[in-house]
Amino acid sequence: MSAPARRRPPGSSSLDAAGVTDPQLRSDLLACRALHAEHGRTYFLATALLPPAKRPWVWALYGFARYADEFVDSLTTPDPAALVAWGDAFLAALAGDRAPDDAGPVGRAMLATVRRWDVPVDTVEAFLASMRQDITETGYATYADLEQYMYGSASVIGLQMLPVLEPLPGLEAEAAVRARLLGEAFQMSNFIRDVGEDLDRGRVYLPQEDLDAHGVTRADLQHGRRTGELLPGVEGLLRFEVARTRELYRRAEPGIDLLDPTSRDSIRCAFELYGGILGAVEGAGFHVLHRRVSVPLTRRLAVAGPALARARAARREQRRWRAPA
Predict the structure, then answer these.
(1) Domains of the chain by range and CATH?
(2) Packed helices 172-193 and 261-283: angle between N→C axes, nearest 10 degrees
């Protein structure tokens, strides 16, 4: 009897489509895929709508961001010193001053992605700088201050994704503007949803000027975290932040049509589902300090199912037009 065929790891077909043959890089990208699948359900679902050849590089971008973030955001084992050491090792490897192995599997996958897609190095530097900011900063006085932080923590992720998503020729600059806005909208959705969890880390990402305008103190937020009760002003504060974030989504949305047709449904899916966090916050009556709300599975499937059909149709159409006569 012949030996049974060895089962290949999930994601192997995407690595094949991307032309990744090096065993070490395949392993590194699959490690990023595991991080993506475990921690980024919405993004992972949206990534599945991209052409298979593009998916591994998005795994790497997400895995890099998540891995770095965990050094400072872990509620159980934060390790800021490790973030600094790892970030320095990665940047040195990116500059060619250190061996790629010093950056570990996630760093090696990111190095390959930066080189494969010519990802702007300054966006990686800005991201790591924002992660380091979390070591010492516990709040932001104004929205302008928060925007500077979000540029590095979120907007640059959109800019790093752009080469993979392939903006239409001649529209790259406009697509970049919209990508920055969408990254900011995603980040603000996180901040609104995770106010309670961030309090446990000693941080408040909602600007102090907004708290002051609604007569809210950190003590009021801590009270809501402990009891689930919304003290006067807290609901108004959250309503204000939801409205501000919806405006970011509105301004970012035209950027979806500036992308290659095979990328649009993926980003549209993320747009709809991440924007749905705001609806979930409203649906919970803004009682989000003591619990974490989420977009229901039924809603995720309702958005992703039709999007998958459209994405497959877009890929078929592209192949048809690119096929030789």
Answers:
(1) 23-119 (1.10.600.10), 137-310 (1.10.600.10)
(2) 30
- DSSP code at position 206: S
Among candidates 44, 67, 70, 65, which has minimal Cα distance to 56? 44
pTM: 0.90
Distance CA 270, CA 42 (A): 6
CB 42 within 8 A of CB 300: yes
Longest Cα separation, the chain: 76
- Tokens at residue 123, please? 């966006």
Nearest to 161 by CA among 240, 258, 20: 258
> Hey, which bits of 167-259 come out as E strands?
none
Distance CA 302, CA 20 (A): 33
Q: What is the pLDDT along the chain (325 residues), one digit of tens a residue?
A: 455 556 888 899 999 999 999 999 999 999 999 999 998 888 888 999 999 999 999 999 999 999 999 898 887 788 999 999 999 999 999 998 887 888 899 999 999 999 999 999 999 999 999 999 999 999 999 999 999 999 999 999 999 999 999 999 999 999 999 999 999 999 999 999 999 999 999 999 999 999 999 999 999 999 999 999 999 999 999 999 999 999 999 999 999 999 999 999 999 999 999 999 999 999 999 999 999 999 877 877 777 677 667 767 767 766 665 555 4
Under DSSP, is residue 215 helix (H, G, I), strand (E, B) or coil?
coil
For residue 228, give the nearest of 287, 294, 293 by alpha carbon: 287
Alpha helices in 151-296 (DSSP H): 156-165, 172-193, 195-200, 208-213, 218-227, 234-252, 261-283
Residues in the chain: 325
